Protein: Substrate-binding domain-containing protein
Organism: Hoeflea poritis
Amino acid sequence: MRSLLKKLVVGTLLAMTAASAPVLAADVWLMDGVEPRPEGNATVEAGKFKKDGPWVIAMSHFGVNANTWTVQTAHEAQGIADGDDRIGKFIMLDANFDQAKQVADIEDLLAQNPDALIVMPVTSTSADAGIQKAIDAGIPVVVHTGRVENQNFTVDIQGGAENFGKVMGDFLVEQLDGEGKIWVLRGLPSHPEDINRYNGLMQALEGTSIEITQEDHGSWVYDLGKKLCETFYLNDPNVDGIWSSGADMTRACVDVLKQFGADIPPITGEGNNGFFGQWIKEGYPSIVAEYSPSQAAAGVRAAVALLEGKELHKHYIYEPAGWNIEKAKKYYRDDLTANVWWPTELPEDKLQELYGKK
């Protein structure tokens, strides 16, 4: 009996110790594929921002309605917030890709005394003053989907960027054997993600004989991408490969080439359901650089982890390998519209509600 009682007491003490022990940064999961930056990475000490709920979490989104991907990021973030009873209020403001509006949005959000602030920056400097003001007020700041010059944030999660552009660039270098002419369809001018993806392409092309013959910004949307590719083709139809920084622009460019009866050269893509359907049907050479809209969900999780008092790393990276067509086939959904992006954390009922074909 004494032996049994001793075991029960020891077990209870161990459980209490485990429950009270701080959660180490290595034990915090934010999203599949998101990992701590391997070098030069500080940690946010456990308990620094711990608060009892209900919490107010504020988010400055760089542009919800810019394209179908940004729309989904808003749904992914809202989904995590809606599923956590400790979040009493989740406030998201849309900067509409306007630097001045993002400055004003963050001022408005801070005026509501949030417990944590999440920022998706319009440019590398548009959120700097707001980030500093939040930090000075003791409010933790999570930055994701775009780098900022102000490094005083609490945590950042950076996906895509150079890795995204290089995955695509390396694919073209391999397909073209290091020589030939390519078109380049970039994203939104001045956006940090566009700049960093392009830098990744430059890294891939270094030392090759590949020449960029035509280049412009299509802002990651179908209509602008289509206009660019029409212009490129009419200017000079001779192209050996196409580096497209977004799947909607890829779909548009393929449609243009088909319209002119031209062969489709190796062209880069992204995890969009519409692109997957087109790729699978047409079978042209391509690769997918993964850039999940669930990064917005990871941003909310990071804010929650800070308010829970968990230890986090300051810097997280999201640099997955490229996808081939076989992986695309596993994700493609014919029952959903072209507007859903993979991988996603949205549950099936929400996917059907938002993207189900009527």
